[in-house]
Specification:
This protein is an alpha+beta fold. 18% of the residues lie in helices and 47% in strands. The longest helix is centred in the middle third of the chain and has 15 residues.
Length: 265
């Protein structure tokens, strides 16, 4: 969603050698109508270093440094996540940092397969199936699947100037592949600009309703550095309700604020 001309969100352009360190935490809980409940979570610490800057985007090196996943029903998810630790992924992105292609995918795929064989030898079929599924994807969907946190960061990092205030989009009715119709509403809001701290707040939300019993609501709130244009802290919440039950998901991503001209960290 593009907002009218206004505040310049990024006052210092991305530069070769920029380094940013983030910590991401995700919790998902599912409750079924029969009372059964399931919760899973993960925590990741990763680095983003800028390898090149072009007119249309960036070449970033994404390196997962720490990872932990907890899922009592699928304990192998911890190995699937840890398999990426210390494997550098060279990623072409747009100017907001949204991943478009993993440039070194063949080399990264082989390193990931070897790591999974070491970390989850008892789940070889599952591991090979995950690698094969990723390998069969097109560049864009593969990059989005492996680098979901970058997709979320980019959603809160507009590179065009934005106007302070709230913009709402008129509800629209969409038809799903199943033939069911849903009403979608969206909004975006930008404000709380703190010139002395070089920060601002970006918020957005989407609600999709398919009748009275099924809906999904997503809300995102991010604090941006107006110095370098990248997220300092972000929280996204989503809730899906259906006749079978309810699922709630929370994602938080944070880094140390760079202030107004401090070195990247």
């Amino acid at each position: 969603m593009e907002i009218a001309t206004g505040v310049q969100v990024q006052n210092r352009e991305d530069e070769l050698g920029d380094l940013r360190r983030y910590v991401s935490e995700t919790t998902t809980s599912t409750t079924l109508v029969d009372g059964r409940a399931h919760e899973r979570s993960n925590r990741q610490a990763f680095e983003l270093s800028t390898m090149a800057v072009t007119a249309r985007g960036l070449l970033l090196r994404f390196t997962l440094r720490e990872a932990q996943a907890r899922d009592p029903e699928q304990p192998y998810l911890d190995a699937l996540l840890k398999g990426w630790v210390d494997i550098p992924l060279e990623v072409m992105t747009n100017r907001s940092g949204a991943p478009e292609r993993i440039v070194n995918w063949p080399r990264a795929r082989e390193a990931y397969s070897a790591a999974l064989a070491r970390l989850a030898p008892e789940h070889g079929d599952i591991a090979s199936g995950v690698v094969a599924a990723l390998d069969g994807m097109e560049d864009g969907p593969r990059a989005a699947a492996v680098l979901a946190d970058l997709v979320l960061l980019a959603a809160a990092q507009p590179r065009q100037p934005v106007r302070e205030g709230r913009v709402e989009v008129a509800p629209e009715t969409l038809t799903a592949s199943s033939g069911a119709s849903m009403v979608v509403t969206r909004f975006a809001e930008f404000g709380s600009v703190e010139a002395d701290a070089c920060t601002a707040v970006y918020q957005s939300g989407t609600t999709m309703a398919a009748g009275a019993d099924a809906s999904t609501a997503e809300a995102l709130r991010a604090t941006l550095s107006t110095w370098d244009g990248w997220v300092i802290g972000l929280e996204q919440t989503s809730e899906t309700t259906a006749p079978a039950g309810r699922m709630m998901k929370t994602v938080t991503i944070r880094r140390d604020p760079p202030g107004c001209g401090a070195p990247q960290s």
